[in-house]
Amino acid sequence: MNRIVFALPARSDYVTRGGLAITRVAEQFTGGANRLDDLINLLDRRRGVVLSSGTTVPGRYESFDLGFSDPPLKLETSGVDFKLEALNERGQVLIAFLADVLREPCVVISEKTATRLAGHIIRGDAPVEEDQRTRRASVMSMVRDIIAAFSANDDGLLGLFGAFAYDLVFQIEDLVQKRPREADQRDIVLYVPDRLLAYDRATGRGVVLTYDFAWKGKSTEGLPRETAESPYLKTPRQGFADHAPGEYQATVETARAAFARGDLFEAVPGQLFAEPCDRSPAEVFQRLCVINPSPYGALMNLGEGEFLVSASPEMFVRSDGRRVETCPISGTIARGTDAIGDAEQIRQLLNSEKDEFELNMCTDVDRNDKARVCVPGTIKVLARRQIETYSKLFHTVDHVEGMLRPGFDALDAFLTHAWAVTVTGAPKLWAMQFVEDHERSPRRWYAGAIGAVNFDGSINTGLTIRTIRMKDGLAEVRVGATCLFDSDPAAEDRECQVKAAALFQALRGDPPKPLSTFAPDATGSGKQVLLIDHDDSFVHMLADYFRQVGAEVTVVRYVHALDMLKRKRWDLLVLSPGPGRPEDFGIKKTIDAALEKQLPVFGVCLGVQAIGEYFGGELGQLTHPAHGRPSRVQVRGGRLMRNLPNEIVIGRYHSLFVERDSMPEVLSVTASTEDGVAMALEHKTLPVAGVQFHPESLMSLGNEVGLKIVENAFRLDAGTN
After folding, report:
1. Which CATH number is 528-713 given?
2. Angle of helix 606-614 versus helix 587-596 axis, rounded to 10
3. Closest Cα to residue 162, out of 303, 7, 15?
4. For the chain, which has fewer Cβ within 10 Å, the N-terminal or C-terminal residue?
């Protein structure tokens, strides 16, 4: 929590960027935990939000509670449709303000009254340059417009509070929806509060902030703050599960076949359980806070009888508008029965190669997400495979940060990570389509985000996991497991049950259980690099590496490759990794066009496979896919491997490779694994080369191997005929 709140003056007056006048009154108090309890109980029947962190991790999380009831304004979206509604007379002042100042071109307002603005978004085409994908026209464009109107640096707490659903990703990426959505499904519910309760559990200090708004002679001062009742209805319901026995295990087997083909590296399919629940949302939340305290606990009354009760352990995105943080979680094991048992479980978790490989992939994809919008070289792993402890589980967690590039903000940081690899898989696009194709029901809020987007430009959101959706007497719990080629389907099914255990305990009333810095040369200075994205989840981190050595990099998806090659003069073409096979992306035509222009070509993973096939080689398939695996590689010289030691450690994500027996005479193998798989190829006379491994991977960080290879890519035309 922003502790500067305890130093706020008793009264402040300020004006937002859009011209809204705001008066804030701060009432400090001590020893008033009952105020928080009263607020929690009130949310059983009034709209509002409580965000609660019940854990302390130095440098990462601290205990706090922040919440409100009876917000005056609500933003709700479903697909491209939106409505802004005043929830009381005070909200009408804000509706009048927004009606005058909203300026986003893609927002079409078709209904405008004193209490409501409604309309739709004109969804934009996918951008050619991938750096701009977070700015694609969507309902999030309206969120950005609202934040701009309310923008002010005078308050670190006021903002938009609520939930973002998983389906928002369909507005950013062109994925295909395979399952019908329920009529009551909403994609965004966000509130603007006019009264906030902040409470610091560690010190027992609290503050109540009350706000009044004024616009064009109209003011909220003196108007009542109460809103209409919105209670939880305890309708008799029957429980259900969306998977029959054995079906989830069959989905894991389907995923394993995709891993073997190289279509996926990992996937996170989920399953849904539902039970009738007579407990109120407030009661479930209070029990959950005791049973399973977590950094992103939440109770949300979203109106229309729908509630979210969360004990999420995972940060989604946190940003102050400049610095971006995430904490990917992958690697889970049940707690022991006592401290000795806990120690043994931790040892098993840290020694598990599968769990290490999972987190390798999650953090590599997370770093790639940041590289789309962050300053080259600023993406750092602050903590690696740290143990976080919860009531029933241990997790291994990484902590990753980056610094936003000029022109990008906290919403860009939010959208570039949509949605976290820990709940989707990798490569992310193909993994999200796998989820849509194979899960038995839509995800709704699950795997989206909960939290606050503040008007000072900051954001603090948790991933919507370990979350109960409550409506009309039914409580729904959705959980998933991270699956790799090594996965045991029965074990992944059991992991889902373990993750859900604390949530079911809160529902049923079961008794609680006791308790690296780089300094690369500017080899690429002034060079123009065209990086072709083959639906990959590491392309932006790869682009980051080229930017670190001074190059200007343009990232485009493969459908734009030929057009972009014609548009301008490039110094280097980079063929990214990706799922599937080279022919899935027509890479032969891309190489044809590059060589016709005498353009140097550097391929990574799928890219080097395409180079091998282009010159007459054949692809083989590994008996055991190398996904998220580090390997030792013997270096045999060559331009691309220049200035590297005889043996290096690198990170691999592939099933296919160029067969040694079919290697064309014009290609030289300049690096290989101990069992003879070619890891680097160079053309003997043309400036064409590539690596089968991932130079941008955290597994390739040792001795700056990845950056040195990227530097050497600019030297491919040296010494060729």
Report:
1. 3.40.50.880
2. 70
3. 303
4. C
Q: Which residues contact 125 (CB under 8 A, 6 or more apart)?
A: 136
Which of 3.60.120.10, 3.40.50.300, 3.40.47.10, 1.10.1670.10 is the CATH number of 3-508? 3.60.120.10
438 is catalytic: no
The per-residue pLDDT for 73 is 99
696: annotated active-site residue? yes
The active-site residue out of 358, 605, 613, 683 is 605
Best CA proximity match to 388, nearest among 288, 481, 315: 315
Measure the CA–CA gap between 270 and 467, rounded to whole angstroms.
13
Pairing of strands 449-454, 218-219: unpaired
The pLDDT of residue 377 is: 97
For residue 236, pLDDT over 90 is answered with: no
Structure-token pair, residue 301: 């009354």
Q: What is the pLDDT of residues 137-183, one digit of tens each?
A: 999 999 999 999 999 999 999 999 999 999 999 999 999 999 999 99
Q: What is the mean pLDDT of residues 192-212?
A: 93
Cα–Cα distance measured from residue 260 to residue 362, given in angstroms and rounded to the nearest whole number: 19
Listed in sequence order, the residues at least 6 apart from 85 whose beta carbon sits closer than 8 Å to its beta carbon are 73, 74, 76, 91, 95, 115, 116
Query: Which pairing describes strands 678-683 and 393-403: parallel, antiparallel, or unpaired?
Result: unpaired
Q: Which residues contact 89 (CB under 8 A, 6 or more apart)?
A: 223, 224
- For the stretch 658-702, pLDDT in tens is 999 999 999 999 999 999 999 999 999 999 999 999 999 999 988
Strand partners, 668: 682
Count CA atoms closer than 13 A to 486's CA, side-chain side.
11
